[in-house]
Specification:
The complex is a heterodimer of chains A (about 240) and B (about 35).
Chain A lengths: L1 H23 L13 H28 L2 H33 L8 H19 L6 H15 L2 H11 L22 H53 L1
Helix pairs in contact in A: 1-7, 2-3, 2-5, 2-7, 3-4, 3-5, 3-7, 4-5, 4-6
Chain B lengths: L2 H33 L1
The chains are: A mainly alpha (about 240), B mainly alpha (about 35).
Chain lengths: ~240, ~35
Amino acid sequence: MKTRVLGLVAFLTVATTTVIGLLVVPADLNQGDAQRIMYPHVASAWLAYLSFGVTAVAGIGWLWKRDLRMDSVALAGAEIGVMFTFFAIWGGMMWGRPIWGVFWQWEDPRLTTTALLLALYVGYLLLRRLTDDPERRATRAAIVGVVAAVDIPIVHFSVEWWRGLHQTATIASPDRVLDPAAPGIFVLTLLGTVGAFTLTWGYLMIRRYQLAQLSLAREETARLDLLMSVRSAEVAR
Amino acid sequence: MTDAGFVIAAYGVIIGGLGLYVVTLWRRIRAARKGR
């Protein structure tokens, strides 16, 4: 019931911030309407970081406690993170074409490291399909999930470490938190969208975790059925 | 394509993708519950 309420609140806040971002907030003086893409783009990028961070922490949790619920959390983070990484890349491309003149540039460190992040976690999800043994699968995935998380700070700080097309942080920078390089109404809309998307992320994480737990239970039932049929065949012989 | 076209393409895929994922997730959960 609480999860349903969370889902409803998430839906309403996403709908509201989408309408505000598209129709209420004025267009940017320099970037025009294309700047509106920044709201879901930045929110998606933040949730990609958060999702993969959760996957890494849950992976460590599995390696430490050997509790398969940790692996279910890690799986939820990876799958949802892949989706938000794709959204961040897509939004960035749709903004980049009218503002930069190109959809994509491989020489840009932020773009390339983000593409690598997507590839790493698609690989993580594919790796999980290689074995049916839940414990072996969880251990392999945890190791990959922890190693792949090294790319998260590289993606985030790539704009500070190297030169490229992508601009440096507008808000999420220590010296700009209280004095962001954007008008207040834009910052508020951005924070609202980030909040709405984060609520949605919470709802999706809960539901994806539930699905992972159901799949685990089904795997266990299938394994027990197989054992029983083997035993029955041995007794009948 | 105009700026508005890029905005619609961005929001369409992101918001539409979120909606599609939610519906797919519900269906997968329902199928998993029935399969037990």
